[in-house]
Amino acid sequence: MNEKSFNIQEELKKLPALPGVYLMHDEQDHVIYVGKAIKLRNRVRQYFQSTSKGPKIDQMVRHIRRFEYIVTGSELEALALECNLIKEYHPKYNTMLMDDKSYPYIKVTVQEAFPRVFMTRQLKKDKNRYFGPYTDVTAARDALDLIMKLYKIRHCKRILPKDIGKERPCLQYHIKQCDAPCQGWISQEEYGAHVDQVLRFLSGHYEDIQKEIRQQMEDAAEKLEYEKAAGYKNILDHIDSIAQTQRVISGRDEDRDILAAAKNEKDAVVQIFFIRGGRLIGRDHHYLQVGQEADTAGILADFIKQFYGGTPYIPPMLLVGEPVQDQETIEAWLTEKRGHKVTFTVPQKGEKARLVKLAADNARMILEKDAQRLAREKARTSGALEEIRQLLGLEYLSRVEAYDISNISGFASVGSMVVFEDGKPKNSDYRKFSIKGVKGADDYASLEEVLRRRLTHGMRRLEEEGHDSGFSVMPDLIMMDGGKGQVNVALKVIDELGLSIPVSGMVKDDRHRTRGLYFGGALIPIKTESEGFKLITRIQDEAHRFAITYHRSLRGKAQVHSVLDDIPQIGPGRRKALMSYYSSLDAVKNASEEELKSIPSMNAASAREVYRFFHSEQSQKGD
After folding, report:
1. Are 547 and 415 contacting, i.e. CB atoms less than 8 angstroms apart?
2. pLDDT grade, residue 554 (50/70/90)?
3. According to the model, what pLDDT value does residue 601 have?
4. Rounded to whole angstroms, how far apart are CA atoms 440 and 438?
5. Which fold does the domain 8-89 belong to in CATH?
6. Average pLDDT rounded to a whole number, residues 434-446
7. Domain 563-622 top-level CATH class
8. With contact defined as beta carbons under 8 Å apart, do 179 and 191 qualify?
9. What is the pLDDT of residues 573-585, one digit of tens each?
10. What whole-number distance in Å separates Cα of residue 555 and Cα of residue 578?
11. What is the dihedral of CA 158, 160, 161, 162, to 10 degrees?
12. pLDDT over 50 (residue 195)
């Protein structure tokens, strides 16, 4: 249903009193907010009542042109669907995580006869043992290195004991970091004893290990084996370092996450402490964009849904400083995801309460410390984009696509499409185009081909999928690397396809520096010191860089196609010689047969073929 045929007041009357998820759309039909409700009728109607709901929500409501909803069987199903849709659409007015961190774990494949140890970011329900998360990747790698030195556990993918003796031992054996169970040189029982020691080490039980290493160090020193003793000393220091970073919180083997939030008018920070096996093994913080009306209970709820919706491990208990919004529903959702009970606890005293307070203090300090950095980051991204929006007089601007063509005098033409969303590059949506229907150095025709292919493909995807996601998302603004000519090419394609997308040209001066935007038939100057100007320059440079990189990769792989490919009896070697000898395709065309014959690797017959090809082609064009 389009905006013109959608009557909000009439559609509000049709809302069911059932649980579900609702999606708010703006004038460009972008999803700008996703929410869940126990009763859709009551919740959605609240947005359109006259009372103020805070600056951020009030602003959102002014942009709503239509809404849609999905009925679910329960509030729990609605919460799960809400999380998935927020992750898919990244709605502008939802409280959103500003980073997308994932943490490594160390996996011990205890289900195998000869277990392996390696680092992974995926936790599977496979009855193996996982340790982490490691907020410091270097620390995880250091722990793995130490395990290999101490216990010589394999991390290859050979299937043992089935593959014993089938291949030679790998490098790890030769550098004395594996006992080569693949050769049968260590029994399963002895290997299993080493694995048990690894499990104790990763569980934080360092005392026995330290005692054993210290004894080996002293024995080596007594035997005057000082080099070996120094090696043990290094290992002992390494274990001491790891032990000191993991503070003991509880005498029991508890897994807990501790969360606390701090906020100002526009931003929030959530601090999280990871407790595994009763030890504090790591901590990290995450930034969120929030509205002035948001409270910490709601911020924690939004963070938990987004963070634990993507994290591979959920502990049985989350410690928080206050009850979380929708706590019972979120607990049930996390329990379902984990497969075992998950509860929230608000500790009132003792070490746990002190840790929650410490997390809250850390969140406040980080927010205060990084306030200026965040302000600068916003100014150069979303703030800069807002400058461009106002400069061009657009109602909405989030997704910008920029295009560039790269060729070497017609020997090859390739196109690039780069995407910026909210002022930041979205690398996953970048696209490369090998020009297929244009011969020679015709940038306008090449741009037309690239735009037609991109927009046609996007329209087809949108029609097939029924909603805008991935490549089917149309740009809010197309920026061309050039002025009037390039803009007119884009407008021609857009008009022929029946689309309505604004197009701006990024105009450069004689010194190849950006000097303004061509838009609406006029050159719009822009202050060079403004963040908007700097963003335009970054977009233009990125489009050019991406095109050049693709062009070079094709040239390097000898995949470039040009007019020279069509000359009979001229192979890759002679084509390369022509490209190396002449600076442009026109120079090849204008060369005499004698000049062509003088090029290394060219003989009289090949020179005659090249000369005839271009001159017969020119005479045909003249006819």
Report:
1. yes
2. low
3. 79
4. 7
5. GIY-YIG endonuclease (3.40.1440)
6. 76
7. mainly alpha
8. yes
9. 788 788 777 766 7
10. 14
11. -50
12. yes
